[in-house]
Design brief:
The chain is an alpha+beta fold. Helices cover 28% and strands 23% of the residues.
């Protein structure tokens, strides 16, 4: 968005609507066709009764972004947050996320507040200035302060004007130029903890998810997916399935066999009754053991070189890299090397994947939880072979995602569209597609399996002279919908946290082996940071020990960026860093990372219960994400990040044998249990810097902090996750 070019227009007869886009702002009457209206990018609507409605094009999946963006409006408009209604916006370029190439409408990389902080504040400030001007005209005197509440304008705390009186003036008024945003010193809502606007609905069960969508006459579809990667259908006997009362049809689609029934249980029973002969020869030799062996063979060979760029604020100059071995030869240093492994992980959101499609009034309405609307609508249009103007994608709240519902291939949505196309042709029936948890865990998309070799030249003074890292794995992004491919043809998420290493090491070498196999992979919460930070921060602790230096001091000695130092020191202070291992047998592990402008440090406290039993007693966060909109939401995101990270650290792994995942549900793909959850505390650094994000930032540095603490107690570092594979039990 080009925020320097704005043209505000308020012409609605029945209400005031304000929005922002690169070229213009258009307003429409309240009660308008939202899809058509939002094609012009509208963020804010004030209805004739004074009610404030905020439109959000981001996906809500528990990160509280609806509340966060509403807070920006509430602050600038001087309206109580609880009086604001938030509505999911339709698909529109106006809600494009400028953090990504091409500005697609998607929610990822903790970018929502970062990207929309100014646009939403501007919409609120514009309305505030126009209302103040209207009140000044009506009262024939200057009005300094306007509060919009209960359908009234409260002027300077004394006089009240019904919004209906102000509306005629506002709708015919030119928009202010320039728009005056509040100085941060004037903030009354931004920066204070606010209860999420959807908390009550979530507690009482009225918060509507995709699974809650009910359409009269809708049939339910389930899909029998291939039992192994690459398996192909040879023969189908559907007679037993069709004999089940309520089963309407069995349909072959590109990704499997769909069973359409009157409800889920009928359709699922039909699915189980199918007799399908599969040719599974394609994945016969596919296993994680073979993949790991292949990766080790690649890891001893040079890969595609990645060119470093200095971190903003770092003052060193790049020079030709020697690599640790040559550096050691020339400078009398010692080379230390380690190998790390991170397994495939499933996203496994709590709400199973689902999508409902119905035709109404000549339009095709698609109801689903997603945060990649741009790609999803395009996929629907392509699958159904219809005009884009005939499709309405309704973005619903998501019961978790962790990246799964931003699938570049829109897999479950495309399946629903394929089934709908067939069913609609046959009987004009609405379709609700539902995946089981087993469908998703065994046939979904995964975080890539990654192997990394890291080496460093350690100088006599205990500092790092040279760093080399080789990463082997499938790229999380290897498709055309988003271009994150760098000039070296390397998926840039592959080198997250490595390509922009936070440590001031002038001699650095990194290369990558991109691999390919039948296992489908995509991004997961925090993308490459989720495993690369584990590699880097574990290795930093190893190097500190080899140098005989306190792990905290060792890190601080290699950091120039003040914001990184600040969170690291704060985590150590609040966690009462004991140097790693105290006399009482309580060990501390520490780690730090940067995620797209957010700085996070963790301290983990671990107690050894027996030889192989440990208790994680405390996780401490220190986080600097610039200007904080809602501190309570930040703490919630850190806590959720810790729980997800601990689940993956302790147990998370998808193992593949003969092309088939061994894990299928939460009994084999275990999450963290309540009794294992440690005390979690979050400390937020006060900052006036522009806001960044919290949603994904709480995940990466938990695993190394925990593993570094356990290493202090065991005397041996853990270089492969999950830790359960090492016979370690967390009690």
């Amino acid at each position: 968005m080009n925020q320097s070019r704005r043209d505000f227009l308020a012409t609605a007869k029945n209400g005031l609507v304000l929005g922002i886009m690169g070229e213009s702002i258009t307003s429409f009457a309240a009660g308008f066709d939202q899809d058509q209206a939002f094609s012009q990018s509208d963020f804010l609507s004030i209805l004739p009764n004074g009610a404030v409605r905020v439109f959000v094009g981001q996906g809500e999946m528990g990160q509280d972004i609806f509340s966060g963006l509403a807070i920006l409006i509430a602050e600038e408009l001087n309206t109580p947050l609880e009086e604001i209604e938030v509505v999911a916006a339709p698909v529109s370029a106006a809600f494009g996320n400028s953090f990504f190439p091409g500005s697609p409408q998607m929610t990822a990389a903790s970018s929502s507040i970062k990207v929309f902080y100014i646009p939403y504040r501007t919409a609120g400030a514009t309305a505030r200035q126009m209302l103040r001007a209207a009140a000044t005209d009506l009262l024939n005197k200057e009005v300094e302060n306007i509060v919009l509440t209960g359908g009234e304008l409260i002027c300077d705390g004394r006089e009240r004007i019904p919004f209906s009186r102000a509306l005629p003036l506002v709708t015919n008024m030119p928009a202010p130029d320039p728009v005056e945003l509040k100085d941060p010193s004037e903030f009354k809502i931004i920066g204070t903890s606010q209860r999420g606007i959807d908390v009550t609905d979530k507690v009482n069960g009225t918060h509507g998810y995709g699974m809650d969508v009910k359409v009269p006459g809708a049939l339910t579809a389930v899909v029998a997916h291939p039992p192994s990667f690459g398996a192909q259908i040879q023969h189908i006997d559907s007679s037993a399935a069709l004999a089940i009362p309520g089963v309407r049809e069995v349909v072959v689609i590109p990704t499997g066999v769909a069973v359409i029934g009157e409800n889920y249980w009928v359709a699922d029973s039909g699915k189980k009754a199918l007799v399908i002969d599969w040719d599974e020869s394609a994945g016969q030799d596919l296993s994680t053991a073979n993949i790991e062996e292949h990766y080790r063979e690649l890891a001893v060979k040079p890969g595609q070189a990645f060119t470093f760029n200095p971190i903003p604020g770092m003052d060193y100059q790049l020079k030709p890299s020697l690599g640790p071995s040559k550096y050691a030869q020339e400078n009398g240093a010692v080379v230390i090397e380690s190998e790390f492994v991170a397994p495939y992980l499933a996203h496994a959101p709590m709400e199973p994947l689902n999508c409902t499609i119905v035709e109404h009034d000549g339009l095709i309405h698609v109801h689903t939880g997603t945060h990649y609307q741009f790609a999803d609508k395009a996929a629907i249009v392509k699958t159904l072979q219809v005009e884009a103007s005939s499709v309405r994608l309704h973005t619903l709240p998501m019961g978790g995602s962790f990246g799964r519902r931003a699938c570049p291939k829109s897999d479950w949505i495309v399946e629903a569209a394929q089934i709908f196309k067939h069913a609609h042709t046959a009987r004009k029936s609405p379709i609700k597609l539902v995946w089981s948890r087993e469908d998703d865990i065994t046939g979904g998309w995964y975080r890539p399996f990654v192997l990394s070799k890291v080496s460093a030249a350690l100088k006599e003074d205990g500092t790092i002279g040279s760093w080399a890292q080789r990463i082997v794995g499938q790229p999380a992004i290897d498709h055309d919908t988003l271009s994150f491919i760098g000039p070296e043809k390397i998926d840039l998420t592959t080198v997250d946290a490595v390509g922009n290493l936070i440590y001031d090491i002038q001699d650095k070498v990194i290369d990558v082996h991109h691999t390919a196999n039948l296992v489908p992979v995509q991004w997961m919460r925090s993308v490459g940071h989720s495993h690369n930070v584990f590699f880097v921060e574990t290795f930093m602790s190893e190097l500190a020990d080899r140098s005989g230096t306190d792990q905290l001091a060792f890190r601080l000695g290699h950091i120039k960026e003040d914001r990184v130092k600040r969170v690291l020191e704060l985590a150590a202070e609040k966690g009462r860093w004991n140097g790693g291992l105290g006399n009482d047998g309580i060990a501390h592990g520490i780690s730090v990372h940067e995620f797209y402008g957010t700085y996070v440090a963790n301290l983990a406290e671990v107690i050894q219960v027996s030889e192989n039993q440990f208790k994680i007693s405390k996780i401490v966060y220190a986080v600097d994400l610039g200007t904080v909109v809602n501190p309570d939401a930040v703490r919630a995101q850190m806590e959720s990040g810790a729980v997800l990270a601990l689940s993956s650290t302790l147990y998370g792994e998808i193992e593949i044998e003969e092309g088939t995942p061994r894990q299928s549900n939460f009994d084999t793909y275990r999450p963290l249990r309540f009794h294992q959850c440690p005390h979690i505390e979050t400390h937020i650094v006060s900052s006036s810097s522009p806001p960044t994000g919290a949603g994904e930032t709480g995940v990466p540095s938990v695993a190394p902090a925990v593993c570094n603490a356990i290493a202090k107690l065991r005397g041996k570092y853990l270089r492969a996750l999950p830790i359960a594979k090492h016979g370690i039990e967390i009690v």
